[in-house]
Design goal:
Blueprint (H helix, E strand, L loop, with lengths): L5 E4 L3 E8 L14 E7 L1 H11 L4 E7 L3 H12 L3 E6 L5 E7 L4 E7 L9 H9 L3 E5 L2 H13 L3 E4 L11 H6 L2 E5 L6 H10 L4 E5 L5 E5 L4 E4 L12 H14 L4 H16 L9 H4 L1
Parallel strand pairs: 1-4, 1-8, 2-6, 4-5, 8-9, 9-10, 10-11
Antiparallel strand pairs: 2-3, 6-7, 11-12, 12-13
Helix pairs in contact: 1-7, 7-8
């Protein structure tokens, strides 16, 4: 019997990373970068790379255009062994990420694909139905796919990132989610939010806390915590996606919540030591 597989829908992008000694003040001025490089970005690409690194079968459904950025993203993910079903778009998603060595980030979206038509929905429905878990990330096309995913009856995992507890765009994802991930950046009371998601019907809710690790609430309302794994941080991009992937892989392998959180922490530490979304990209992009 083959291992359970994962269907992931959402962004794969081409990013420029610029490391500064501090994030820019909102006034005209000049700063010198401490380092800069280009790499694959996108939360869904990050999850797919980490699942690939763990040997978990996954299909990434993402959009890329017939432009230089799209060619680079497609080539890099193919070289890293990530299986992708590509949709076309006018312009590949691109970000400019302003970073500090401490992990503070401002992400500037230079382009972002719109939702697709429903022409390919039959194939997408089949791919989702054949997977053990469906991951829908925050973007226009996954939002369009929510009813299609819900109709398959497969568990839906969502990552609402720095949700503030009120933003309208996130609400359909939360309503459909069996498992919810977020970070604590903009939540006044992360634990209250996690318990609220369990009360709403989710079976697991997890909040990452940066250097303090993560906290989770399971279907019985029991709280679990995990410490971050100490590591020399090279770049924080993709760490949350790796944590998500580590927990997902462990849960699909039958591990309880505490062990799954530990797997997520180890997966995140692996990514924090690379300047790419995953070390699989190190020999591809340098």
């Amino acid at each position: 019997m083959s291992a359970p597989s994962v269907f992931i829908a959402g962004p794969a992008s081409w990013n420029q990373i610029v490391v500064l000694d501090r994030l820019p003040d909102p006034v005209p001025h000049m700063q010198f970068a401490e380092a800069s490089w280009e790499t694959v970005g996108g939360t869904s690409a990050g999850k797919a790379l980490s699942l690939r690194g763990r040997g978990r079968e996954a299909l990434l459904y993402a959009a890329a255009g017939d432009d230089d950025a799209g060619s680079r993203v497609r080539a890099a993910l193919e070289a890293a062994g990530v299986r992708v079903q590509w949709a076309g778009c006018a312009s590949t998603e691109r970000h400019l990420n302003l970073m500090t060595a401490q992990g503070a980030r401002v992400s500037l979206y230079l382009s972002s694909p719109a939702a697709q038509s429903d022409d390919g929905d039959a194939a997408l429905r089949a791919a989702m139905s054949a997977s053990a878990v469906i991951v829908l990330d925050l973007a226009a096309e996954p939002l369009r796919l929510l009813p299609l995913a819900t109709a398959t009856g497969r568990p839906i995992w969502v990552d609402v990132h720095d949700y503030d507890g009120t933003a309208e765009f996130h609400r359909p994802f939360l309503a459909a989610a069996d498992v919810v991930f977020c970070n604590a950046d903009r939540l006044d009371d992360p634990l209250a939010f996690l318990h609220d998601r369990i009360d709403a019907g989710a079976t697991l809710a997890v909040c990452t806390l940066g250097g303090e690790g993560a906290v989770a609430v399971d279907a019985r309302g029991v709280e679990h915590r995990v410490a971050a794994v100490p590591v020399e941080v090279v770049d924080t991009n993709g760490a949350g996606d790796a944590f998500f992937a580590g927990v997902l892989d462990a849960r699909l392998s039958g591990h309880p919540v505490p062990e799954s959180l530990e797997a997520g922490a180890r997966a995140a530490s692996l990514v924090l030591g690379s300047r790419h979304l995953h070390p699989l990209l190190d020999p591809v992009l340098g």
